[in-house]
């Protein structure tokens, strides 16, 4: 897959090849009190790193803080319009490409970070703009940055991406409402990858996708990791993905990190009741 913006000078984001791409250090994140709701601590003292070219998984029960972790480490929370419902780092630190996210981040640095970071939220498939075709949706991020980008190169890039997410070329002219939810999810992933990010933060990227297409996505993530050095943090309950794509998996429970290991080792781990339950449920295929 070609990277359309190789020449973009990211001087502020220069780091050595071994520096972590993502880092949480004793990270505590809260949602401020609003209305009748008191302050809520969503993550409490979480520490881990993701190295360049490493794919780390995240599992945990509903409400354990997975999406909050993704919103914070992707820096998405820095540009949330409604500050009343945005998470706030109240302890420790989170770093994206070595940029501390706790304090103020300049608009320019935030734009640089967002250029290098693909964030695929849980509802990404629902957020595809209804009035554009798949081809337009995939080309948009590139044309927003360079209106005069060569249309033939763009067309090839978009078609390659669509193929990589296991979608037929006939989908290029389709509108989102004409696609199944699994196909929309794949278009959302393709769009997240269109600028050739250095890191992907994805919240349940294979939800609603059939087994064959899932395997194609696993393969795509492995290829991007091995050939382009893509780093990723992937929230997922897809055990095949956790086994075949991630090197380590973070287990969250009520905002705390209760395990960090290869998935098969986590499933053997009995040091926390959540991990014991996870291991016991594995045969049923759910996490
Ligand atoms: N805007 C908000 N204001 C207050 N509390 C919130 C807000 N968003 C999430 N929370 C709370 O923070 C905690 C962590 O939520 P989060 O969405 O990160 O969990 P999750 O593990 O991703 O859950 P799920 O698997 O259901 O998506 C939950 O208790 C949730 O209710």
From TrEMBL:
<dbReference type="GO" id="GO:0016887">
    <property type="term" value="F:ATP hydrolysis activity"/>
</dbReference>
<keyword id="KW-0813">Transport</keyword>
<protein>
    <submittedName>
        <fullName>ABC-type dipeptide/oligopeptide/nickel transport system ATPase component</fullName>
    </submittedName>
</protein>
<keyword id="KW-0067">ATP-binding</keyword>
<dbReference type="InterPro" id="IPR003439">
    <property type="entry name" value="ABC_transporter-like_ATP-bd"/>
</dbReference>
<dbReference type="Pfam" id="PF00005">
    <property type="entry name" value="ABC_tran"/>
</dbReference>
<comment type="similarity">
    <text>Belongs to the ABC transporter superfamily.</text>
</comment>
<dbReference type="InterPro" id="IPR003593">
    <property type="entry name" value="AAA+_ATPase"/>
</dbReference>
<keyword id="KW-0547">Nucleotide-binding</keyword>
<dbReference type="InterPro" id="IPR017871">
    <property type="entry name" value="ABC_transporter-like_CS"/>
</dbReference>
<dbReference type="InterPro" id="IPR050319">
    <property type="entry name" value="ABC_transp_ATP-bind"/>
</dbReference>
<dbReference type="GO" id="GO:0055085">
    <property type="term" value="P:transmembrane transport"/>
</dbReference>
<dbReference type="InterPro" id="IPR027417">
    <property type="entry name" value="P-loop_NTPase"/>
</dbReference>
<dbReference type="GO" id="GO:0005524">
    <property type="term" value="F:ATP binding"/>
</dbReference>
<feature type="domain" description="ABC transporter">
    <location>
        <begin position="22"/>
        <end position="279"/>
    </location>
</feature>
């Amino acid at each position: 897959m070609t990277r359309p913006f190789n020449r973009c000078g990211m001087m502020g984001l220069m780091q050595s090849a071994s520096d972590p791409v993502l880092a949480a250090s004793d990270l505590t994140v809260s949602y401020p009190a609003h209305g009748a709701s008191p302050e809520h601590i969503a993550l409490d003292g979480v520490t881990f790193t993701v190295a360049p070219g490493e794919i780390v998984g995240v599992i945990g029960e509903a409400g354990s803080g997975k999406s909050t972790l993704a919103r914070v480490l992707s820096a998405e929370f820095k540009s949330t319009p409604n500050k009343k419902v945005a998470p706030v780092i109240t302890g420790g630190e989170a770093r994206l490409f070595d940029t501390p996210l706790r304090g103020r981040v300049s608009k320019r640095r935030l734009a640089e970070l967002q250029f290098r970071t693909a964030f695929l939220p849980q509802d990404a498939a629902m957020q595809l703009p209804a009035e554009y075709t798949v081809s337009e949706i995939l080309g948009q991020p590139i044309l927003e940055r360079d209106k005069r980008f060569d249309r033939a190169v763009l067309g090839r890039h978009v078609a390659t991406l669509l193929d990589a997410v296991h979608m037929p070329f006939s989908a290029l002219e389709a509108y989102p409402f004409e696609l199944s939810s699994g196909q929309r999810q794949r278009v959302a992933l393709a769009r997240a990858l269109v600028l050739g990010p250095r890191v992907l933060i994805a919240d349940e990227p294979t939800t609603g996708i059939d087994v064959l297409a899932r395997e194609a996505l696993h393969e795509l993530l492995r290829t991007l990791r091995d050939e382009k050095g893509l780093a990723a943090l992937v929230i997922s309950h897809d055990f095949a993905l956790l086994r075949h794509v991630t090197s380590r998996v973070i287990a969250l429970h009520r905002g705390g990190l209760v395990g960090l290991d290869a998935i098969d080792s986590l499933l053997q781990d009995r040091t926390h009741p959540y991990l014991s339950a996870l291991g016991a449920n594995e045969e049923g295929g759910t996490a």
